[in-house]
Write a structure and sequence with these properties.
Elements lengths: L6 H6 L7 E4 L3 E5 L7 E7 L14 H17 L5 E4 L15 E5 L9
Antiparallel strand pairs: 1-2, 2-3, 3-5, 4-5
This protein binds 2'-deoxyguanosine-5'-monophosphate.
Length: about 110
Amino acid sequence: MSSNDTIFGRILRGEIPCDQVYADDLCLAFRDIQPQAPVHLLVIPREPLVSLAEAGEEHQALLGHLLLVAARVARQEGLQAWRTVLNTGAEAGQAVFHLHVHVIGGRPLDWPPG
Ligand code: DGP
């Protein structure tokens, strides 16, 4: 299954704009359009991967890279504490079926999440 046809695919292809905070050969990071906190970023792979459920051994390095970039952009935003979230599947809150790491911070965050 491909995730080329999602809104994030369109952002990656430059068809719609985003507020970009970081980019490299493997991924792109930008501000979430519906922020849930003062800082809310999304880190997405350029590769059209639907979710963590579709990831395999071949994605091991990519997934590690996405987490390191998540920490990098969190620090870049001046955060000392933040939450990284990967919603996997509609029932878990995934609305865009192109894997993305949420980076959320800038306010106290409750646990457990809803
Ligand atoms: P999720 O529910 O985990 O699939 O998160 C999808 C997030 O994507 C949600 O927080 C809103 C955000 N989002 C949806 N469409 C756009 C868009 O066009 N631009 C940006 N920057 N974010 C978007």
